[in-house]
Queue: 2 jobs
Job 1
Amino acid sequence: MDTIDLRSDTVTRPTPAMRAAMLDAEVGDDVYGEDPTVNAFQQRVAEELGFEAGLFVPTGTQSNLLALMSHCERGDEYLVGADAHTYKFEGGGAAVLGSIQPQPIPHDVDGSLPLDKLAAAIKPVDPHFARTRLLALENTWHGRVLPADYLRAAHDFARERGLGLHLDGARLFNAAIASGVKAGEIARYFDSVSVCFSKGLGAPVGSVLVGSTALIDKARRWRKVAGGGWRQAGLLAAAAQYALDHHVDRLAEDHARAAALAAGLGEIPGVKLLGQFTNMVFIDVPADRLRELDVHLRGAGVRISIGYLPTLRLVTHLDVDDEGVARTVAAFRSFFTR
Ligand SMILES: *Cc1c(COP(=O)(O)O)cnc(C)c1O
């Protein structure tokens, strides 16, 4: 029995066709800038998103860190969501490695950061304060697509205040597919964007940071400093390239399956459906039955993450099909109705 793994969309394994593309990749030493597959891929992502340059890096965490360190200097500050990945789930890298002070801002329910709260958090130019230099947003945020009107307003706000604007677009393509627009329509409001290829797009490894040539030159230097200068990375770029060519439009299937999963789970007494956004479903279950539920689901070949109580997040992806959704709903039902 195949396991249906709903813990995250990072668990996908490369398909046979993706593996074939990796084996065929032409490679060179990327630290010398000589890997043709990497060069073509990062340039293509930059062009598709409307930027001058791109940099292929091992992880989304490193991509965001390089962006923050390229926008900001020691003693600068960035405004960021209190529940944003760069602030909360990246080991505090901006502060630890970049000497950049984060200024967390509480999110609205849709994931946006209210402009009045951002305005109030900008520090005066005075030696007492860190220098507020950058605003970082996240889209999708916990599966939610930031409203287009908000992106426009945040862009104008950042311009007026002289702030750079970075997007953690780990799931940018999910946002684009859900909105029915090209990813560049979302990316255009930003000075830099980080995109993950190792989430729902199904590549084994890799993110791309895009921005101006000057920004990406800085980021390339910081990548080397951070130990991210890699060599024949074209093997991995080929996988990400394959994902870009073949796995973007199909994200709609993940969203539809998440909706089906939410509808199925929502009918089960004992499961409280909190919401479904793009490829994520959020539910509450009685906390005292959680361990028992986890054991039951494992027995039925279903994996969930129970790490972030009290709410459970179930994530659909390339390796979850209709049968997997049906089996998951059936496993929850048999637990709560036995
Ligand atoms: C996964 C994720 C990242 C980081 O990606 P890694 O490759 O796991 O380092 C950054 N931001 C968001 C929103 C993510 O979901």
Job 2
Amino acid sequence: MSKFWSPLVNDLVPYVPGEQPKMANLVKLNTNENPFGPSPKVVEAIKAELNDNLRLYPDPEGESLRQTIANYHSLKPEQIFLGNGSDEVLAHIFYGLFQHGEPILFPDITYSFYPVYCGLYDIEGIKVPLTDSFEINPEDYKQANGGVIFPNPNAPTGRYLGLEHVEEILRANPDRVVVVDEAYIDFGGESAITLVDDYPNLLVSQTLSKARSLAGLRVGFAVGNPDLIEALNRVKNSFNSYPLDRLALAGAQAAYEDEAWFQKCCDGVISERERLTKALAELDFEVLPSKANFVLARHKAKSGESLAQGLREQGIIVRHFNKPRIEQFLRITIGTPEQNDALIKGLKSL
Ligand SMILES: *Cc1c(COP(=O)(O)O)cnc(C)c1O
């Protein structure tokens, strides 16, 4: 509390990002970054942008990138909204597309930024419990609400909800926006983007941070009916007209133009996920079925906290959430084969 703070800031409860330790040689498996780097074509495209044009503002509408993403998904550019990471896109969604004054619905175990945005914009959030097997039950989303949001696959569980169930939630809420946060969709799930022409209440958000290895570039986007996109543009143009800089626009576009690299990275993560899941099961872990680039796993005897601490002492960082229902679990990002081997070896020693 400071006399200089606005009363609003005094009450904020900010998000706490996974740590980015400065130590060398860490096996860093805590923030779901992609272990395989970005396409070399992305680096080239960014270098080509490093010139005198940096004195000029970037394209406020990111038209070229929107056209590229639209083409990729067989959509129109007016169905795409760009943001400085999908976190920014989500913030604008909370502000512009949820009915403030009515509670919005999201799972009890989910991305912890959702309650933070509720606090920022003074929206009530109802935490809808996942089932005992940590799944979303569409029946639970048939109650009155001001909007619905969930990640698919969910984080930090990794569990995927089939599109027929996503449609069930969409059909139950024709007058409310249903947001599917697809940060991890490219690791084996089927995207709801194919449904946006059928459901005017559907908004899908995606990011280049995970499957396209560009967490450092900060590019995310939303896909939906032009009417929903227009609301996001109104918020954006009342906040920051240039959320994506020239380097981000160029790099993101190049990422979409290197499909082979993207596929190779996704396949690499998926095959390592299957290998790690088996290895963890052999070490007496229960591993939730994951379609993401991480797994959530609980040991039959050892506590999540002690394992996370023991790994840390060996320079291996995983995520442990001190939260109800998942405090015994570790969330482990899928690393390179070498990193995953180090993790398995570290766990064996514990
Ligand atoms: C990583 C993540 C995001 C944020 O992605 P950025 O584009 O890097 O801001 C959004 N939602 C979920 C569920 C995530 O895990």
